[in-house]
Amino acid sequence: KMASSSFLLFTAILALVSWQALASDPVLVNGFVCKDPKAVTAEDFFLAAKLDMPRDTKMSKVGSNVTLVNVMKIAGLNTLGISLARIDYAPLGENPPHTHPRATEILTVLEGTLYVGFVTSNPENKLFSKELRKGEVFVFPQGLIHFQFNPNPYKPAVAIAALSSQNPGAISIANAVFGSKPMISDDVLAKAFQVEKKTVDWLQAQFWADNHN
Amino acid sequence: KMASSSFLLFTAILALVSWQALASDPVLVNGFVCKDPKAVTAEDFFLAAKLDMPRDTKMSKVGSNVTLVNVMKIAGLNTLGISLARIDYAPLGENPPHTHPRATEILTVLEGTLYVGFVTSNPENKLFSKELRKGEVFVFPQGLIHFQFNPNPYKPAVAIAALSSQNPGAISIANAVFGSKPMISDDVLAKAFQVEKKTVDWLQAQFWADNHN
Amino acid sequence: KMASSSFLLFTAILALVSWQALASDPVLVNGFVCKDPKAVTAEDFFLAAKLDMPRDTKMSKVGSNVTLVNVMKIAGLNTLGISLARIDYAPLGENPPHTHPRATEILTVLEGTLYVGFVTSNPENKLFSKELRKGEVFVFPQGLIHFQFNPNPYKPAVAIAALSSQNPGAISIANAVFGSKPMISDDVLAKAFQVEKKTVDWLQAQFWADNHN
Amino acid sequence: KMASSSFLLFTAILALVSWQALASDPVLVNGFVCKDPKAVTAEDFFLAAKLDMPRDTKMSKVGSNVTLVNVMKIAGLNTLGISLARIDYAPLGENPPHTHPRATEILTVLEGTLYVGFVTSNPENKLFSKELRKGEVFVFPQGLIHFQFNPNPYKPAVAIAALSSQNPGAISIANAVFGSKPMISDDVLAKAFQVEKKTVDWLQAQFWADNHN
Amino acid sequence: KMASSSFLLFTAILALVSWQALASDPVLVNGFVCKDPKAVTAEDFFLAAKLDMPRDTKMSKVGSNVTLVNVMKIAGLNTLGISLARIDYAPLGENPPHTHPRATEILTVLEGTLYVGFVTSNPENKLFSKELRKGEVFVFPQGLIHFQFNPNPYKPAVAIAALSSQNPGAISIANAVFGSKPMISDDVLAKAFQVEKKTVDWLQAQFWADNHN
Amino acid sequence: KMASSSFLLFTAILALVSWQALASDPVLVNGFVCKDPKAVTAEDFFLAAKLDMPRDTKMSKVGSNVTLVNVMKIAGLNTLGISLARIDYAPLGENPPHTHPRATEILTVLEGTLYVGFVTSNPENKLFSKELRKGEVFVFPQGLIHFQFNPNPYKPAVAIAALSSQNPGAISIANAVFGSKPMISDDVLAKAFQVEKKTVDWLQAQFWADNHN
């Protein structure tokens, strides 16, 4: 029989965070380092994220910067199914077409205006788009391709977005398609996009050099 | 055999929103009115919520005002597991101890500072609390009692919170315990709170008259 | 490539219980110690709980005693989403207002009678209550505040309850609000309950000294 | 645009139960009749099940009687993932080998003793069994074949069981295999059970006439 | 009180398929027409799909043809979380880069060879690819961009794929990005793909005219 | 505070497969050996399963052979909820009545014909059966007893089946009931199947000696 004394106490907070002293290597549970439930503190549910501060968008070719607070940033989010992000947009900047494989997104505009949209599945591929002003809210359903664009040539924009997963993932379409490492065969992409292979090669050269989130 | 032609087309977006013309009464699915998938538009994923605008906190005895954007406000959220809220706090105002029966919450401070916390389950009932400044982030795990308090006697505070359900629900502890309709027997409450029944009666009188969310 | 020989066999019962010999410290999975699937026996699905025996209710200020059989008691419950409890009520005893953050409860009365109820979410906060006789059944939906009270001044009562989680958690409202460790600021509680801070201080003194489930 | 006024209010209790007046035929949601959320009362979470009363086991060839309280009996259980049962066993009676396709079961003995067990999946097919006395608890994991048998030739036994679904389903192996309507081909069963077809035919004759739960 | 007689019996198969005679318009549940559980037959779990027969790939610009058996084809799949597909590939044909917003895919090659791959999320965007021969198996995790390409210039290829949803959805990247209706602003796409707007316009012209799955 | 540097990077693919170097014993997560996310390759999502090759059915008393590709075979399937199988049937061979405790199955015939069926839950126990020809598709809902039989006395048959779990489990009814180790008491089985104990003993002797999947 399994002695009940051999169980560590499971504390009130679902053992979201636990730790295990085993030599120097930490143990992963659900892909994350664990912490002794008794050692959990308020800090494990907190991040000094400075989501109020503008982020630099100059390093981004597309003019945006996503600051995501997910389970890699707040260990206590593990299993809890939610994360939060601030997105900064340069004038004419955008969060280019992308998907979240494991989350729906709900977004509100803090500053400026945003032209946003998502495209439905095959075969319709309908675009649902909207120009959002400050304080307005839009929803991007799980797994669908969506984007936000700041149409103002002079002013930046800012949004807060929430996602229905502690680890939503993000796949920027252009980067994933033309900038994967290694590259997808240009035969495949030329046929998919109905273009010449040299066009694909040129596109891949753009993204290979500078593939960041 | 079921003729396949008798199925309405299931559009790309999961038939989140559908509608059914049946006499005058609408049909509920998942508790909500349905809409013909073909009639779904971007408006079903949008709300002109004005989350950028300060809300009046004067009508609230506790000095706060929660503006929740859930599936009752954006029909397209149905089944998608997320909602968003703006919370305004008067100077010394609070979002009093409450729980969300079906959601975890992640919150960031837009303006001011907030003293926030949650209490773990029996038997520990540990308080995890923190004073949050602008831009900082905190997580309140599903079903646990939590609160936010604006300790500043002069300035209001504002937060944005996301919840991991399209219909998270909220239960203000004081109102649910002392202000339910009808009232919980004062025998029950006197013993639970270890006070005289007349104390319970007095508390119930406070909440009966003014029970709002 | 990952050699298939490097996988331990996953036995028929979902590896609910597994164990790992690593120095002296056990490994947690899902927050629990693991056991080698091959070493699992009927004992891992069994507890000599003596749920037929009356429990002492004298140590409880509120006159009740909950004997919960969850995953901490039966390791084999891990991931299976259910637990079982016996609740003893002294004459005029009660299981005071509480919530289960992760479970719905279904209860039947074995002995005596019980006045039971739950309160719905904001803004209605409707009380659904009922006096249950022996053999009758009541449901308390997930996350809602509920209670059971034995109105009989002479006879004890007994109930069996089942919960839809292997680790439902329980939050006694009075204890969590007034007896947390450390205490919630009396500023917060005074405003929430619409009472003087000295009333809060007095309540906190009651619960701080004796906070058990 | 979908007018928000066209949504019925979604009350605090998840619209577990709703109703729709449409001609004479009721509307099914999740397979059940719906009720207007505003019309929900405590009765929708209650059943006068008389689970304290012995059930007749004389009508049963196997000497048992299962009284299940599921969503067909308590409408308020819809979506909440739990149900409760009382099982009566005649002397030497049994709840014969069966599975629940959608639920784990946890059981405690109220009266008498029970020899209980479950069999793990292929290829091991290990039997985990135990003789339970009054007050002891056993778990039957989801989908596995299990049984309870009252080994006492003189005294009845009684158990309370909880299941992790509001509609767990039950499949009595002998009845489903030999008593289905219409019958499974005896070619199939003769080969499966490694017996002559006439043996299968004889078994099918037993169950065809008397197939009840 | 809700009379239990007002509930239709919930049959053993989860009321996967039900139907409701209400004037001429059918009622949707979970987005699908419902059928009286008593009227369900084996036909509701069957499709004469002819998945053994080669499909024409000549109508497809990319040289492939997906025959998907999902809940729109077999009503009985509702809520059961799985679907099946046959995919035909012309010589040098491909199932171009696409995602399934709600499903993982597992595929095996029936005829020919396939160069297959998927790209991981930001920021790595690693390509995991493999040339599959007849009988080999590959997995494409939920929501990730993936493709299959028949590298043989003379022979067709065939695969069978299973998906972990009764309605997985599919989003062909090129069609969704360049062929949505209406089109995504070329400002957005030019910046996202780091190309001239006229290149975008030209691409959009390709896909607008011929956008099918 | 938990240093964020103590977290291993969670790669894009959900850390489906991870590994931990701890002395000689591997760590189980979700019952499986883990692999460093950085070390994951395409091979972790691949199996050279040769599902195109006929399997020997001569070793099987019932004339069938199931080749299952689940998470034990492809580590990358962990958490993804799907698996795939090839089933070979000898002339007059069968996949005897069995259940999958955690999965629905969808099947298509590659070669030959199959008489297939499933039986619904108590109390109806309706048999839904069908003779399937090449290319046709059938669904077996989760947890229900089902079978496939090759009625052709001369030709083998082949099917491909997909299951909605990475570890569906399988319980062959005859083997689990009459061939468990140790055996179920013949008192229990004699009553359940309404036969003499000596018949049960004889059946148990058949299965005890040769219990394989």
Q: For the residues shown, what is the average pLDDT of chain A? A: 84
Oligomer: homohexamer
Helix content of chain A: 10-25%
Kindly, what is the distance between the CA atoms of the first and last residues of chain A, rounded to a whole number of angstroms?
51 Å
Outline of chain A, from the CA principal axes? globular
Order of helices and strands of chain A: EEEEEEEEEEEEEHHH
Structural class of chain A: alpha+beta
- Beta-strand residue fraction of chain A: 25-35%
- Give the number of helices of chain A: 3
**Strand segment tally of chain A:** 13
What is the CATH third-level topology name of the largest domain in chain A? Jelly Rolls
Main sheet specs of chain A: 5 strands, antiparallel
Low-confidence spans of chain A: 1-33
Q: If strands are numbered along the chain, what order do they take across the biggest sheet of chain A?
A: 4-5-12-7-10
* CATH architecture group name of the largest domain in chain A: Sandwich
Binding site for Mn(2+) (chains A, B, C, D, E, F): 98, 100, 105, 146
GO cellular component, one term (chains A, B, C, D, E, F): apoplast
Subcellular location (chains A, B, C, D, E, F): Cytoplasm; Secreted, Cell wall; Secreted, Extracellular space, Apoplast
Keywords (chains A, B, C, D, E, F): Apoplast, Cell wall, Cytoplasm, Disulfide bond, Manganese, Metal-binding, Oxidoreductase, Secreted, Signal
